[in-house]
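Troubleshooting log. The previous structure file for this entry was overwritten by mistake, so regenerating from the original sequence record. Sequence copied from the archived sheet and checked twice against the printout by T.R.
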Amino acid sequence: MSSSQGQFLPADIMSEVKLRFHQVDHDHTGQKRLYFDNAGGAFRLKSVLERMAELDAIPDNIERAHTVARYLQDIQATGEADFRCLLNAQGGSVCTAQTASAIMFEMVRTIAENVAGSNMVTTTLEHPSSFDAMSIYAQRTGKALRVAQSNPDTGGIDVDELVDLIDQDTCLLNVIYASNISGAKLDLEAIVRKARAIKSDLYILVDAVQHAPHGLIDLQRTPVDGINIAPYKFFGARGSGMAWLSERAAVLPHHKLHGKPAGAWGLGSGVPWQFAALTEIVSYVCWLGEKFTSSQDRRALFESGMNQIELHERALLSRLLNGEGAVKGLRQIPKVTVYLDHPDLSKRDLIIMIGIGDLEFSRAVLEYERRGVIVYERVASSIYSKRMLDSFKLKGGVRVSPLHVHTPEDMDAFLRVTAEIAGALA
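Regenerated output below.
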C-alpha cells in the first residue's frame, strides 16, 4: 500500500496496542462492540488511569518542600517537558484546567483585551469554545469579527479565504487544526506563514483538540502563540485540558495571583495526575515509535510514533472508503453517501460523515447500536454542529470516527453492518 493510502501497523504490534487500552472491543459490561465515536470520546490508556489513581490518592500539597511534595513537583516538571515534546515547543508557559474549552476562552479573552486592533479573524468550522469566545470578546472589546467560510468541496478552509481577511488591524487569528465534522486538515503551516507575512506580530491561537491524536504537531514549523489539546481525546482522562502559550502571550495581563511570575497561568494548587497522564500519553507514542527508529531522542521517538499512527489511520480510512475484496467500501455500498468526500486522504484525519438513503440520522445511529456499533449523528439542531453543517449546506450526517487502535478487520465488520442497514431500507 502506498503512503498516499497509508500503511497498516503489523498485526503483532496491533495486538500489543490493543492490550494497552481499555474496552477496545467491548463496553464496560463486557458486551462486544465497535466504538467508532472517538471524535466525541476516546479510548483510554490503561497506564493513564493507573497513574491517575495512584497520584490522586496522595494527600500531599505539591507546593510544600518535603520529600513527597518534591516528588510531585518532579512529576509536574516532567509532564510540562513532555507537553513541550508533544508540541515541539520551546519556552513559553503551560496552562492546565478542567477542560480545553475553558483555556481557549481565557486565551482569547487575554489577547482580545490587551492587544491593539480593530478586528479578529476566525473560521466557520471552529468548535463553539473557539468561535463563541471570539464572538463574545470581539463584541466586548468593540472589534469586528471576520469569519472565513468553508469550502464544501474540500470540507475545509482555503488558505487564501482565511488569510485575505487579515490586515494590519487584526489583533488575533484563531483557527482549528482539523474539522471535527469533515476531518479536513487545514494547512496550518501555510496559514501561519502567509498571515505573518501580512502582519509579522500577529497573535495566533490554534484549537488542536480534534487533530492532536491523529497527526504530528510541530510548533517549530507552525509558530503560534497558543494551542490547546484535550488529553481525554488523546488516550488520557476526562477532567483535564492543556494549553501552551508563547512567552509574549503568557505575559499579557491575565487572571493570576500577584505574587506569581508574569508568565504563570496556573490558578490554585496543581494537579499532579494531569501532568503524569500527559507523560503516559507521550511515553505510549514513543513506545510505538521506537519500533520504527533507532533514535533515543524523545521527540524523535514521538515523531516516529505519530507518523505510524497517521499512516495506520490513513490506511483504515482508505479501507472504509474503498473496502477490500468482497467487502464493499462506503463509496460502493448502494444507498450510502459519503459527505464531503475527498480523494487526497493525506488531507484528512480519520473522520467520515455519511448518510444512508433517507434514514433519519439519529435512527441510523440506533440501527448501528442494535448491531454492536457506536457512532454519532451530527445534525443542524446541535449547537456543536449547526454553523459547520450550514456552511456545507448539509442537514446532518452520521459521524464515523475510529482510532488507530482499530484494525482493518474492524473496518470490514463496520462495512458489513453498514451494508446490512442500507440493504434493509425499502
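The two ends are 37 Å apart (CA to CA). Archived copy saved in two places this time.
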